[in-house]
């Protein structure tokens, strides 16, 4: 996978807006939240939940035979999203880069504000797309 930032797109350094991939298998990972296998929520705050959700994504991609380097796109659903939440969101992303090996810059990201998730304790759910060779 090659991440790129074509001139003319939003000038920021946190994530690459384009991921060019080649491969033979597409992994579409369902939204992952900050929960253990038992369903117990692991963190009370947005940054902690982002970090744990991204760790769960790595577990899912590895279970499909891939690695964190195969993740080509992330879609992040945040309850009650406001611009003021961006610092906590990016803190959780940075934690995942440090502990789980996510690329820097990150692959393309879309953040979508939602009213609620499947349980009130959850603040974020993250979907991922990976391409495996």
In short:
The protein is α+β, with helices and mostly antiparallel strands. It has 2 helices and 6 strands.
Q: Using only CA atoms, what is the Rg?
A: 14 Å
Sum up the overall morphology in one term.
globular
Count, helices: 2
The whole-number mean of residue pLDDT values reads 93
Along the chain, the helix and strand elements come as EEEHEHEE
Helix content: 10-25%
Global structural class: alpha+beta
Fraction of residues in β-strands = 25-35%
Sequence of strands across the biggest β-sheet: 3-6-4-5
By DSSP, the count of extended strands is 6
Largest sheet: 4 strands, mixed
Offer a few descriptive terms.
alpha+beta; 133 residues; single chain; two-stranded antiparallel ribbon; four-stranded mixed sheet; 25% helix
Q: Your description of this structure?
A:
With 133 residues, this protein is of the alpha+beta class. It has two helices and six strands; from the N terminus they run βββαβαββ. The strands form two sheets. A four-stranded mixed β-sheet has the order 3-6-4-5. α1 crosses α2 (86-100). The longest helix is centred in the middle third of the chain and has 18 residues, at 46-63. It is globular, with a radius of gyration of 14 Å. The mean pLDDT is 93.
